[in-house]
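Progress against Task 2.4 (sequence-to-structure conversion) is shown through the following example record, which the project officer requested during the mid-term review.
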Amino acid sequence: MEMMETRIIKEKPPVVYDLDDYRHGLRNRPNDTQITITPHHKVDLWTIQAGQTVSPHMHENSECIVIVLAGRGNYMRGDQSREIAKEMMAVTPPGQAHSFRNTNAEPLVLVTIEGPGPFDTGPSGSSPAESFY
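Structure tokens generated for the chain above:
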């Protein structure tokens, strides 16, 4: 499926997002697409293919709320693992290690909402997601 932008996505700042415009996955690693970022929150859409894992990581300053849009998998926080599925939500407090694994044949699609900022960045200001795999 080719990603397309809708007119409303191009408005500054967007008020409504069509998440199907962002929903696409890479075959070799989980895909993290930033939807929006402000000084107060950051919203990303994750597509995690069958068998893929987002490695344990933490957000020092931000709570991370995860909403499952599609699929099934495991949400690991610290030494605990819980099954997650469509229409479920998980909350990770700041400084708590967490990760995700797709345990299903269908893509695991998540929206993550982090806040408050400032937000972690990877090398050269890149998304820390680049080092999660």
